[in-house]
Queue: 2 jobs
Job 1
Amino acid sequence: MGSALNLSLTTIDSDVIQHVTKTSSGCTVRSYSHDTGSGPVLCMVHGYPQSSYMYILSFSQPARAERSRWRHVVPMLKDKFSMFAPELPGYGISSLPAKSDKRTVGGILMEALQSVFGKERSIIWCSHDRGARVGHRLAVDNKPEHKIIAAIFMDIVPTAEQWRVFANPAAAVAYYHWPFLAGPTAPQLIEAMGGRVYCQDNLNRSKGANEAGAARLRENDAVDHYCTLFDKAETISGSCADYAAGAFEDVVEQEKDQQAGRKVTVPTMVIYSKKNLGRMHDVEGVWKKWVDGDLRGEAIPNGYGHYLPEECPEEVAKLVLDFAGNYAKQ
């Protein structure tokens, strides 16, 4: 698979520990952690078509300091918060889950987290894209044993709301991959095109127009790492299964939630790209229908796109520190 698959958080930060957890479902979860010894754990789950490597520029301290714009600020995050960054099951590093709905995957990730930090630590779910959708499911379920005390969702609206906006032709084109990846022939078609090529195309489509942000997305060989993962048939089939669950089981469950009045009740911050997601949705207005409690919306301007933790790590880290700092003692 080449050297790109050897990249991980441990290659960037010697303080980060790698874990391999065999869960009760049979799924093997690879993850990375940094433990301050107390306080809540920031659970940072990546999305499509990436890996946990996306968080290196925002939340870890590169060994080669000249490549980090955060060598002075990141230590503040590391001093305040423990961190857990798992590889999303089915995305080429953790193994394929038996089922890909967000409740099942969320349970797998919580089991892996608790195997590292124990069952007493509280959780701040702080994730992007598909990882944020897993967090949304868990926050609505609100199981006491999960101890989720706050949530940060990056660049999403609820799954059911995303499907509804497809009545807008511009949105249907911009997010074409949603129905495509959920279809039964998607894995074969992507393999025929080449997983690397398809991954590169998706990264290009969703990045912002801000050139500095696009350059940060490419730093540390990240794009090659992601594209190398999509050379694997398992990554293609696993990520397609994620989107298929998002078209069926996940939407059904969310509609049941809304009918029953089940909403996110923990304090929530939604960080989103003003240029991308904000152009298609009234993001904060949409989330108000799904959150029963404190809700904070933060639109990132200046042409930054979907990959906010990489394109504008300064803005993201400041917002995370400001919001999560309210729960640092819990």
Note: The chain is about 45% helix and 15% strand.
Job 2
Amino acid sequence: MFHALSIAQFDVDTTFQLIRRAEALRAMPRHETRALLAGDIVATLFYEPSTRTRLSFEAAVYRLGGQVVSAENARENSSSKKGESLADVFRVVGCYADAIVIRHHRAEELDAAAPFSPVPVINAGAGSGEHPTQALLDAYTIWRELGRLNDLTVAVLGDLKYGRTVHSLLRLLAKMEGIRIRLFHPEPLGLPPELAAEMRDSGIPIEIAEDLEDAVRGADIVYQTRIQAERLQAEHEMCATDDYAIRRSHLAVLPEHARILHPLPRVGEIDPAIDPDDRAAYFRQAENGLYMRMALLDHMLRGELG
């Protein structure tokens, strides 16, 4: 059984098939999409807070004609509070649903428990590990905005140590051709050593920028992230964020074709005055998540790709 736990499971061909399926579902009349998963039930289990991921997954199920059973704040409001193992949760919830979408605070626990589920499991964000569906919708957004996923200079800013969206996106971009990565981050919040080693082994050119203006200058994609304050583990990781915030002045060195992405929520990393600029693509990015998650659910429950 296929469980979508890591972006490593998605090769270039599958990524583009999901993009094409997302585009097809986007254009399909509502009465047609609602027939695709009619009769199916998807369980959404969120052990950590979520707005976009949870609501877009649940909206995707409804748009496809399925139904949702949901546990929000499952860390406190489920039998997890009593000590139930995640493996047992999957065994039980898999009796009630045709697929499980889960956000969990421990990546290693999710990976170990998934094989016990009798139905497909989708990782909707696992601690500071990965967020594979975010990477897929990020790739979809880049493709929609620029028309390609190759020959790109991508500036990645912010918390690269705990930012799971960055971990999955970099692993996906490493599979594309002609990718150049530029990093800018607080000193204690660089890439985890194992991911840095993966990037070096992939042969992708990686540059460390000295300041934010150098980081975004001439970039095709700027991928901004927030500092994951809830995950910081040491006092030395606390840092001022002003030097990492995109201001209107930075647009002067950003090409007109470039796009600014952010997985959201933002907490000061992008000046709202930038929002009206065509290069600000983060709210379109959030919308794209609905269609990419529809495509993934359609694929995992019906085996359909475009």
Note: The chain has a mean pLDDT of 92.
